[in-house]
Amino acid sequence: MIEVENLKKIYRLGDSKVRALDGVSLQIQDGEMVAIVGPSGSGKSTLMAILGCLDTPTKGTYRMDGQAMEKLSDNQLAMIRSRKIGFVFQQFNLLPRTSALENVMLPLSYNGVKGKTRQEKAQSALEIVGLSDRSRHHPNQLSGGEQQRVAIARALVNEPSLLLADEPTGNLDTHTGADIIRIFQNLNRERGQTVVYVTHDSFIARHTNRIIKIEDGKIVGDEKVENPIEAGMPRLDDVLAPAHRDEGKAGQVL
Amino acid sequence: MNFFENFRIALRALTANKLRSGLTMLGIIIGVAAVVALMAVGKGATSGITSQVEGLGTNVITVSTARFFREAGSTTQTLFYADYETIEEEVGSLAKTTPYFQIQASVVNGDRQADYSVTGVTSNFASVNAYTVSRGRFITQQDNLGEARVAVIGSQTSQDLFAGLNPLGRDIQINGISFSVVGVLASKGTSGFSSQDDVVLIPLETGYSRLFGGRAFSGGRRTLSGITLSALDAEQVDSIIAKVEYTLRREHSLTLRDDLGFSVTSQSQMLSTLSSITGTLTALLGAIAAISLLVGGIGIMNITLVSVRERTREIGLRKAVGARRNIILAQFLVETLTLSILGGLLGTLLGVTIAWVVSLSGLIAATVTVDTVLLAFSSAALVGLFFGIYPAYQAAGLRPIEALRYE
Ligand SMILES: Nc1ncnc2c1ncn2[C@@H]1O[C@H](COP(=O)(O)OP(=O)(O)O)[C@@H](O)[C@H]1O
Ligand SMILES: [Mg+2]
Q1: What range does the domain containing B156 cover?
Q2: Each residue of B132-150: pLDDT tens digit?
Q3: For ligand 1, atom 5, which residue shows the shortest CA distance?
């Protein structure tokens, strides 16, 4: 369970201050599947970075399973990132010139998992995202959707209690995006995996059980979704103009 | 995470980016190779020159009017044949002495012609200067008494004028005067900067009467270019020099305050002068080598700094998936150490090879020493280490999100 109280993140640029987060409070229970939506620049990524312990808030408290994050040292935060959190980026952020399997093995090596076990765990994580036959491929030999699935496998491989994704479908076409969302839905339903993802697409947001709306660094809406959409269902504009489907922008490796 | 784990991660990172690794290593290789090769050439040149001078014999003392280094305002005296006779009387029991007079002259054999130093000598010139005759005979006392028109030529002269044919009994023209070749000297090799094999020797008396002309006389008295002495005992060299200087002052009515006007030098003094010259040479080469190392270092720095953007985001990602700062630093330490050591080894190998090729060419016996290798190796490794670690250290201190956003 994560609890956030009055979270603030203020960037100083010269004389002006940017209040990227301006007093955010929320709770997310284990096993929830949550979408965070809001216009561009509203503070979604800032919130996700703090939830993922990639960044620290200017003010406010953040507790994960009762533990206060703001009190932890750099090394303790690294431990939390390694054991409890899986993070999926919009830009995939895979290591270039490094095979899919090795990319997935990376978090394991920082978590003390050794040789054979490491390989097996990475291989089964790739299986979960349906890429066991692509383990030897390098990022530049994979499509955008496949790269993002490798990134999800990497996020899953340490069996985190919290899976965070910042616009995971943002660089993908709708069809490929649906595959990604399906993986999240399956993880959530079959394993009780807590999943929080950001999207600016309300259709994709409605694949979850709960939608949190952010505007100007504040939460302006928090509602339950009564009938979540099943991943793979056609969206209305798809039905109307299927030819307009975008074939996906190029992904990005580091 | 243990050391081997980290080593594996580092190697993986290195092999994943072969071009970057290769370029970084190239900088180190060039720097180290340049230092090793240049220092080897410098050391080889030094020991080559000094050993050649030593080969002349440390017992040899030269008296001449020409000075090795002339101080400003110094006066030059004329060395007379009579001075030789007095010196012979004074130190003849301690050293073999031999007078000589030298001119530059055109020497002709048929259609072959060249300018040589033609030296008028006496019969003990060969033994004082450690020449041996390879064919024929040396100039004798009878040659001098009879003012014979005979010549003994060096091995190089023989090669130049006779192109391998037997010169004995043949005539050569020195400034148009015919001399018969009676002997050829064995090769002595080069001394410092001048060859000792392109000489032409004639009897001193013949020179005075037929060849040297008026320049060999001053006030009607016969003069000399120099006198060479060979001490019978090396321990006596300094006292012989003192005696010779004293004799010259007495004969030329010079007080101790007057400038002597002659140079009386032993081979060992010459040696110390030369080694100070070659010392400067080595220092110069060392400076060039240091510049190469610096350039190599800047190369290393460049490639590491250029890759920092990529590496910063890589570091951000590694931190995001759970790497601690020390683990990342250790990875980069191992990476740069591997590159530095491998580059250092290859650079040393290349430098030694260059030194070897230089030696093979016969110009200089380049000598590679352990301390130059260590110097080159350690400075390259330090440069590589610093510029490899420092950017990584900075990046690893960032919060993951900052490192990931780095542009
Ligand atoms: N590193 C930063 N320095 C300064 N301002 C920032 C920085 N990161 C984000 N911001 C600002 O914070 C606000 C929220 O950004 P972000 O969380 O990325 O929004 P979103 O992901 O919802 O589009 C924006 O106005 C943005 O300009
Ligand atoms: Mg964003």
Answers
A1: 78-85+95-228
A2: 999 999 999 999 999 999 9
A3: A11
